[in-house]
Design brief:
The chain is about 35% helix and about 25% strand. By secondary structure, the protein is an alpha+beta fold. The chain has two domains: about 5-225, Hsp33 domain (3-Layer(bab) Sandwich), CATH 3.55.30; about 230-285, Alpha-Beta Complex (CBS domain Like), CATH 3.90.1280. The strands form three sheets. It has a six-stranded mixed sheet with strand order 6-5-2-3-4-9, covered by helices on one side. Helix 1 packs across helix 2 (about 30-45) and helix 9 packs antiparallel against helix 10 (about 270-285).
């Protein structure tokens, strides 16, 4: 927090986390940058949560990447996937990875699961497809909180992640006009987050340098990591839900089953013995 509670600052260095996503999904450079930005943005939104709450950020657009999804928890865990991981476009006019071109036109959705009967859902049209600008637009127009969002992923030629991170600065309700002017001046000409991290100045240090005059103080620090709650048991439940007839057809035609988690890429294999057991469970659960 800063400026006596009038400004909220969230910072994350996500290099290791995004690198894990790149490795698991085999992402090409442009896909790496896009998903890395989305995961980092989701992680920053997740930092506002508590308990078992979670947030899902989804991009549904017409570009070659297809849909992108990232899910973050209040505990610093985040996971995500992209519809087409094998996307790498020529650099854009600014000689940067063309994330906007790969995403295309579409919409941004934010779903907050706060443990209530129904999750909170909000959406806005994509402004640029560059993710950071789109999240800022969402926060300002859907949640009515003026926000500056900086997200960056520096990708090597081999698609590995050299640096990744993000920063969100929000001017909260009840702020004074002087606070707005000070924040705008502090964030003017903000360097690219990923380049700053690569040069040894992460988003935390960058925020302290730019917003220190507002009395910036960090209320909490959480470790950030890639994590997926998938399990063999969950996929077994999914197979049983197919019903006895479908499982019997699967056993007769293929003799086994293979499922893959979209979020983390973990493969779960079920042999003939497993399928017979699951057929038995499906039979027991079938209505009489």
């Amino acid at each position: 927090m800063a400026a006596g509670g009038e400004v909220r600052v969230l910072a994350a260095e996500s290099t290791v986390t995004v690198n894990e996503a790149q490795r698991r999904h085999g992402l090409l450079p442009t896909a790496t940058a896009a998903l890395g930005r989305l995961m980092t943005g989701a992680a920053l939104l997740g930092a506002m949560l508590k308990g078992q709450e979670s947030v899902t950020v989804q991009v549904v657009a017409g570009g070659p990447l297809g849909s992108l999804v990232a899910v973050a928890g209040s505990d610093g865990t985040v996971r995500g996937y992209v519809g087409n991981p094998a996307v790498h476009l020529p650099l854009n006019a600014h000689h940067h990875l063309d994330v906007g071109g790969a995403v295309g036109r579409g919409d941004l959705y934010v779903i907050r699961d706060l443990g209530l009967k129904e999750p909170y859902r909000g959406s806005v049209p994509l402004v640029s497809g560059e993710i950071g600008e789109d999240l800022a637009y969402y926060l300002a127009h859907s949640e009515q909180v003026p926000s500056a969002v900086a997200l960056g992923v520096l990708v090597e030629v081999d698609a590995s992640v050299r640096a990744a991170g993000g920063l969100i600065v929000q001017v909260l309700p009840g702020h004074g006009e002087e606070t707005v002017a000070t924040v705008e001046k502090a964030l003017k000409d903000l360097p690219a987050i990923s380049r700053s991290i690569d040069r040894g100045k992460g988003p935390v240090l960058l925020a302290e340098e730019r917003l220190g005059s507002l009395g910036l103080r960090w209320l909490e620090r959480r470790p950030l990591r890639f994590a997926c709650p998938c399990s063999r048991e969950r996929f077994e439940e999914g197979l049983v839900a197919l019903g006895r007839e479908e499982l019997e057809r699967l056993a007769a035609e293929q003799g086994e089953a293979e499922t893959v988690c979209r979020f983390c890429g973990t493969v779960y294999r079920f042999d003939a013995t497993d399928l017979r057991r699951l057929i038995g469970e499906a039979t027991e659960r079938a209505p009489s």
